[in-house]
Amino acid sequence: MTLIRSLFISALAAAASVAVAASNVDYSDGILFVNEDWYGHQNSTVNFLVPDAIDGDYWHYRVIQAENPGMELGCTNQYGALWHGRLYLIAKQEKDPGTDITGGRITVADARTMKIIHQQTNIDPSGAQCDGRGFVGIDEHKGYISSSNGIWVFDLDTFTITGQVEGSANPNVGGSDDKPGADPAGALYRGQSGTMVLAEGKVFAAHQQYGVLVIDPALNKVTDVIAMDFVQEGAGIGSILKSKDGDLWLSVAKSTQGTGAALNYLVRLDPVTLATEVVAIPEGMYAPLNSWYAWTPDAFAASKRQNVLYWKGGQNRWFAGTRIYRFDIDTREVNLFIDLDQEGANWKLYGCSLGVHPVTDEIYMSLYHELGTPTYITRRYSPTGEVVRDYQMIMNYWFPSMPVFAVKDTPGAVETVGAPSSSTTLSFRDGLLSVTDAEPGSAVGLYDVSGSLSARFHADAEGNARFVTSGFLNPGVYIIRNGDATLKLLVR
User: Fold this and answer.
1) Greatest CA span in the chain, whole angstroms?
2) Long-range Cβ pairs for the range 165-170 (8 Å, 24+)
3) Which of 46, 216, 303, 307 has the fewest CB atoms inside 10 Å of its own CB, making it the most exposed?
4) CA dihedral 411, 445, 490, 140 (to 10 degrees)
5) What pLDDT is stored for residue 459 in this prediction?
6) 33-67, pLDDT tens digit by residue?
7) pLDDT tens digits for 335-354?
């Protein structure tokens, strides 16, 4: 090893261990990038990007360490979600083997200050090995955490795991050391639960072995299972997300074995009727890649401003990262949206680090050259695919996971104008838009002044519906429509 290379590695290691000092940053308006970080050397990290910083001070690095001296995240933290003023971070393990600091599989931080409110090492209360995957909020009191062994109920008031969702467990768990004897590879990457979406009062979860789990959060129980065999015999699910129009979209794995191979289809799932539609991806283009083999949320994202989806696709299922596709849901057209090979400089998208800003509709991606090179940038694209700006980063093996968009919300800045035309009533509190006394099962639409549908949801059997508006309603006038009943909504 040359002296120059030795000095470079020493400097890099020293830089990796230092967090940028806290500076009274308000983390409620910017982009939080959750990083796996350098496995075998340090715990996971979160970087904060202020994309339009006037002084050019765009990056605040390792903000969890900066705001919580002596504390860190767990190992291979792949998921972050903002919910009711908190950031929920889910890691695979509680501690990286290369560090002395124990973090947690579950970390909860204040969304404005990044101060850690709660941290715990285990998900399964029994202490059995159960690695973290994702999080979804149900209401202000309850959330679900997906894992290598089922989906767990997390009490957001007491920060305790109160049980496992019935019907969600990994069927391969049960042998010695939490591994089945018949499966030498163990259960960590067989029969996992992955991404989850809240829609129409139900939770829809991707289960590696079963397909889509439909969960009643009032019962904490799986009520329906949608296997993926209708696409192709032996097929599995990749990821699940919700589009602007309220439908759910599934990526399709070739099998349930976690090889990473994808089938060239998308599946639309109606969250009310559970009806499905298979959409073929045109020849010469690629469907969303999946990563059960070393789980991540996948580079599969939906716009909240347009009825479109974006994803990373390619022939090489492991490290393809140069082609980003755009799917217009209304026209069913698939286009190659971004081709990093054509842009030059040998940049590739790392893992699942692609996201669409809920307000500006811009696309943000974390780019790298090679796995052995600690050079990363974050690139910002316009909604039409033009490069807006590159954000250079300090050298480190970040291995970014996913962007989490923090958008300032002003609870109470929504009011009704005029009287409703029926008994249907509207209320707004803490980002939750509630409709009461609607016709049971009827569709409730949220429209902007141009008549474009911004969101769709349905009233339950009691005629009630709730929808989380926080983070995507721009100031302006909206119309809530339920049959002949309308309400005008002013967002200031």
Assistant:
1) 79
2) 165/213, 165/215, 165/220, 165/221, 165/222, 166/219, 166/220, 166/221, 166/222, 167/213, 167/221, 167/222, 167/225, 168/193, 168/205, 168/207, 168/213, 168/215, 168/222, 170/209
3) 216
4) -10
5) 74
6) 999 999 999 999 999 999 999 889 999 999 999 99
7) 999 999 999 899 999 999 99
